[in-house]
# Entry
Amino acid sequence: MIWNEDFVLTMNHTIAKGDLYCSCVVHDTKIDWDLTHPPDEFWESIWPLRE
# Structure
């Protein structure tokens, strides 16, 4: 398997763990070393969540 070593995945929420959405972000460390994952407010503002 070949992968790019400069890419780092962060994911705080997953549907598989029971969350309403997946919060997957792929960071390219060649461009930015700040691996700060967006806050929950960002994800919740993208689309209305149904309960």
